[in-house]
Design brief:
The protein has 8 helices and 5 strands; from the N terminus they run βαβααβααβααβα. By secondary structure, the protein is an alpha/beta fold. It has a single domain, classed as Rossmann fold, CATH 3.40.50.300. The protein has a 5-stranded parallel β-sheet, sandwiched between helices. The two termini are 17 Å apart. The C terminus is likely disordered.
Length: 219
């Protein structure tokens, strides 16, 4: 089996199921003995884990939108340096649960920061590294938040429904602007159906990159 690098990100609003789909995709790659790394934002490094707890679970402290943008990108810069770029350089499939598009959707469309500013700081943190495929699990904000009712909500889940609607619309605009990179999936479908759609696309990418022993229909 030949090896190749592939950078896949999963995006979406609260409760869309992207973390579960990232795990399902990872399990399928493992079954096929395809080398991969699974990571998340913010997180994936010691610094990222600390910033994740701070950004998501600090309830009695207000962050300015700019502070949020900078903190997320501090975690991102460390993740790219320590995990993502080395993984790609080693020929792995790197799967990341959230990446720069989350920042554009949440801090740009959601918080109202200027898109040029968000892009500049994102690019500085990543060195311009972009995913080969971004999967958007699209779900109405109301339904996504309803899925979260059974457990304690983080700082973002406590935001207004208007905020989450802006985030969703931001994602859809991003996907519309770069259709060749994005795979938009209706996240109201069953978990198995969503996983099947994602795998179909990923298998096509793997086959196109010369994995001669890989069968696109393999599941």
């Amino acid at each position: 089996m030949t090896t190749m690098s592939l950078f896949i990100t999963l995006e979406g609003g609260e409760g869309c199921g992207k973390s579960a789909q990232a795990r399902i995709l990872s399990k399928r790659l493992a079954q096929l003995a395809i080398p991969f790394l699974l990571t998340q934002e913010p997180g994936g490094t010691a610094l990222g884990a600390r910033l994740r707890r701070w950004l998501k679970w600090t309830q009695n402290e207000t962050f300015s939108p700019l502070s949020e943008l900078l903190l997320f990108n501090a975690a991102r810069a460390q993740l790219v340096t320590e995990v993502i770029q080395p993984g790609l350089d080693s020929g792995n499939i790197v799967i990341c649960d959230r990446y720069t598009d989350s920042t554009i959707a949440y801090q740009g469309y959601g918080r109202g920061l200027e898109s040029a500013l968000v892009k500049t700081i994102n690019d500085a943190a990543t060195g311009g590294l972009k995913p080969d495929l971004t999967v958007l699990l699209d779900l109405p904000a109301e339904e996504g938040l309803a899925r979260k009712k059974a457990r304690r909500r983080d700082r973002f889940e406590h935001e207004s429904i208007a905020f989450h609607r802006r985030v969703r619309q931001g994602y859809l605009k991003l996907a519309s602007a770069e259709p060749e990179r994005w795979l938009v999936i209706d996240a109201t479908q069953s978990k198995d159906k969503i996983a099947q759609i994602i795998w179909h696309k990923v298998s096509q990418l793997l086959a196109s990159r010369g994995k001669t022993e890989f069968k696109a229909a393999e599941a």
